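Lab notebook, bench 4. We co-purified these components, and the gel suggests they stay together. Before we commit to crystallization screens, I want a quick structural picture of the whole thing.
Request: model the full complex, all chains together.
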Amino acid sequence: MMKGKMVESLEAAVKASGLKDGMTFSCHHHLRNGDKVMNLVCRTLENMGFRDLTLNATSIHNVHEPVAGQIERGVIRRIISPYIGGAPGRAISEGKLKDTAVFCTHGARPSDLEQGKTHIDVAFIAAPAADCMGNFSGKYGPAACGSMGYIFSDAVCAHKVVVITDHLMEYPLSDFSVSEVYVDYVVEVDSIGDPAGIVSSTTSLTRDPVALRIADYASRAIHASGLLKDGFAFQTGAGGASLAAAAYLREIMKEEKIRGSYCTGGITRYMVEMQHEGLFESLLDVQCFDLQAVEDLRVNPGHREISCSHYASPTAKSCTVDSLDVAILGATEIDTSFNVNVHTNSKGIIMGGSGGHSDAAQGAKMAMVAAPLIRARLPLICQRVNCISTPGTTIDVLVTQYGMAVNPARGDLAERFRAAKLPVFDINDLKMQAEELSGVPNRVKPAGRTVAEVYYRDGSLLDRIAGV
Amino acid sequence: MMKGKMVESLEAAVKASGLKDGMTFSCHHHLRNGDKVMNLVCRTLENMGFRDLTLNATSIHNVHEPVAGQIERGVIRRIISPYIGGAPGRAISEGKLKDTAVFCTHGARPSDLEQGKTHIDVAFIAAPAADCMGNFSGKYGPAACGSMGYIFSDAVCAHKVVVITDHLMEYPLSDFSVSEVYVDYVVEVDSIGDPAGIVSSTTSLTRDPVALRIADYASRAIHASGLLKDGFAFQTGAGGASLAAAAYLREIMKEEKIRGSYCTGGITRYMVEMQHEGLFESLLDVQCFDLQAVEDLRVNPGHREISCSHYASPTAKSCTVDSLDVAILGATEIDTSFNVNVHTNSKGIIMGGSGGHSDAAQGAKMAMVAAPLIRARLPLICQRVNCISTPGTTIDVLVTQYGMAVNPARGDLAERFRAAKLPVFDINDLKMQAEELSGVPNRVKPAGRTVAEVYYRDGSLLDRIAGV
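Here is the predicted assembly.
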């Protein structure tokens, strides 16, 4: 086998890359909670003595707990990401990150890179399969993750690109996600991750009666909206109610012989099955949420890997979220102006981020939040969310197990829902109903220094998150 | 069907694009001599009253004869292209282009665009299939051309992108060559071209005994070079001797059970058949040279469309020509320093250009020119070529029907060829032999003003072409 761009270790690649203290590196999350590479990279950089680095990550998950250590010890002083969960999120809330964290959106991240608003000195790419010249793919190898859409912009824009793989294939890997054109170094390691960790617990279909009730209302609301017709374009998350809504929608679409156009965003086996049944023409996949989706991407020509810019970039000449009919989204809090918080938990601690939430909300003709009215004895609806992740102006409908509320700007939808005999309430009334059931919570809002700033997809500052 | 980015006419798209006198537009040649779009665009721009435009084209062919009119009438004052054939080439030689024409290479063209050395204001893309948001593909439709590799950089880098199609498909065209991310306007026309014109006469296998003799020597030289082994990577053109050499190579590879790695560049049915027979792992296709290749690209996962940067960009971190073992190339003239001319004919008139000639010559471990020693009573070999298209330092072997000459820098190859009992001569002796057969020609070199400059893939000036 030719040597190509192979270097003997990650350390050697880092040295060759010219990375210096204070520079920016990037990692990605296609292996989700099975990813071993972000931890490996951060540990390696710490062992090599680096300080004050910026980590620009496509998403940070529970599995990245050790990264909290690199934050605390000053190896990483700044983080840019659309999502920061687990211990790293908590460490930021606790003020352990030297600089303010920057939350972007899935769509804004590649846009900022392509427009030169952000810069990556070295991108570290966990590649399920690669060849010695750096052609890489998410479709093959023991840790196949399917789509690698989130990493396209890093590969194209980063000054140096290091591909890390545990499955070296013969050159040329012609079914590449990203080609050798952009790659500087290739490193072989024992394992880049555990594919079982790709599947988050939320990608299994729920039996929770609350979620099923929400899903029932959600699917009926979509049906009533007038948007569910041939050419229907759809995004839904991997949460219990969202997936169940898709399952109900599937039955309606079958019954009424509706042939949808595409599903986009993260793809689950439910989307795959619906596409196989002819309910959708194609799947435009920026990320596989389970192993069935991974397998399907490998063999199904109607299931296509797309870049994150193609998914949601606000500066693309168009992207898939722009043509969505309906997006079903989650929320940890929603306020009476329909602003949604998916960044902080009830105690104001960072536990997530927008991901593509606000991208899809702005793009879709109908953006629907589907969530239980009460969760862990806390009402979903409040006067003002602790953190604005997605502006209420872009949320059209809230669906809960007790009924739905429609953004006053969308009187047309409220009318359609009422005509379909769906339980439509004023959002203030739903809020009161929740408070009657669980009491008015004693809302905690941290009051420390600003530890994170939340930027909207257009680059404007949406909110600041205070530390505890 | 949704309206998306559809505009009602090419004129409307031009108006919306903001094109102004003196700006640069681009066209491409994937439909080769079947293309109708470059002529349509140039005629439309003339009818709209445009003047002094720069045409940056991926290649200009015989079918583009009318463009000579737009040159003469000052609609086009400058041309940048890797290849200018037919009437436009002649018009340039006759001094009818106001500015000096700029010859680049297939690899340098996208590199220059990506590096910002050249700029395209409006790219006009003839798309065999497209949807209303601009996702487009060369694989479908009545004028399917297969790979659209040459146009990727235009789509990504041009300020405005107009997609012109005669086969509008439902959104989203998920099997896109280039995605909607880059497209501003979509125009539907009756016909973008005649797919029969994709097939140049040279893509049929020759019965010419001279070409067959050359091919025999060429294939035996490749065999003797030591490069023909498992992992062999190969590029050959669509010329008679080149294709015949591939046919002979096919037999050797079968006999010796050699499993090659890839073929790149323009792909013909011979390459397709060899890949099907397991003689090559994959086809990395920047351009389909015949309809069998077009069909194969549609259905064969081992046959992959690649961008022109991936094919040959000198500023890519690597590209497919970098890993070539052998490239078989043509020549209209070669001199005793192995410099090759593919730009001008025996009268010094522009009739072609490098295309990927010098890209492949520099990248390949063995760059072989295969051409008849005498053509139309003119010897192939001269003291100094009329125009240096490819520097002799990058040409390793010349193969003619009377034997071969090896670049003195490659004594290793000469040794191997002699060991294999191949007829190896000093290039000066081959030159004398030709002149004995056909006489010493009275070489014509035009002496007018410089009408074109020839740039190498690294951006350095290789030569100037004088007008007649």
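Chain B has a mean pLDDT of 96. Worth comparing against the SEC data before the next meeting. Chain B touches chain A at residues 2, 4-5, 133-134, 161, 170-172, 174-176, 179-184, 231, 261-262, 281-284, 301-302, 304, 306-307, 309-310, 313, 316-320, 323 (CB under 8 Å).
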